[in-house]
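Data availability (excerpt). All sequences and predicted token strings are deposited with the supplementary files. A representative entry, Sigma-70 family RNA polymerase sigma factor, is shown inline so that the format can be inspected without opening the archive.
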Amino acid sequence: MTDSSGPSTTLDDALKSFEGHRRELCAYAYRMLGSSFEAEDAVQEAFTRAWKSYSSFEGRASLRSWLYKITTNVCLDMLDGPQRRARPMDLNGPSRPDSPLPAPQPDYVWIEPIPDGLAFGADPAEHASTKDTLRLAFVAACQHLPATQRAILIMREVLRFSANETAEALTMSPASVNSALQRARATMSKVQPTVTDDYDESDENQRKLINDFVSAFEAYDMDTLTTLLKADVALSMPPFDLWISGPDNVAAFMLGTGSACEGSKLIRLEGANGHVAFGHYKPTEEPGVYSPWSITILELEGDTIAGLNFFLDTDKLFPLFDLPLELRDPVTQS
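Structure token line:
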């Protein structure tokens, strides 16, 4: 990368070349860290480190591999501790629908959603091949792995790096990488659900399922809503560690503790974690005015909804998804 006249590429050019890898690095850091905010911070820190050491980059590896190595080190530094992020169903059994809401837990406890636009590139084929590994269930399962095993599993099985490339990134031997990968696979086989979200935008039945859900939820028609839910559907509401299982219990919860959602509006998003997602606004005391309530993510299984995820940290999440902090009904002319 250098000759007697100095670097063949200016630092400005280097920064531009870094940007071409931002989304895939953000997706990688998100799988490692379980937080879109921490993932963005990790990539920014990786770019800063890469910029500072760019003069020593001699091209022995590809720029992409070099950036992954730096990002991996940043993530491992950030994961230097016992804390792992989780989903409510990873922490305890289901609650009764009439259970009072517990005290909210800190945001570092929870797997957070990531907008599809932050994680996926423009190539639809890349989107299709990687979206399953950004699903909430997969990211939560990865959190059960020690940090280095997590990096190895993602680099080998998601990014398709060779054992030698992974070993280089982690300063390990290929044999150690392969051994750690086997241990990671064994853990994942125990904690990862066998069925993942299979939403297909081109599937007419699934499009109807989504439309029916929106209609039933906005009408607060629990009789219709429950017909759309899988028998073991799970409803969760981070930052609360309470979760509800089963259509009848979901309906009872929504009509009781969750009754403030009646009259809500759902704004369809591009997507989150490869799932169907909405900006969820609930009514205020002022008629026709709605305030942020949650980023609502649906997990689908065939022609049913298997998961209802309400992420309530709207102060952080609505700006992340480019959502306004107020919604108003259109003014009709008399």
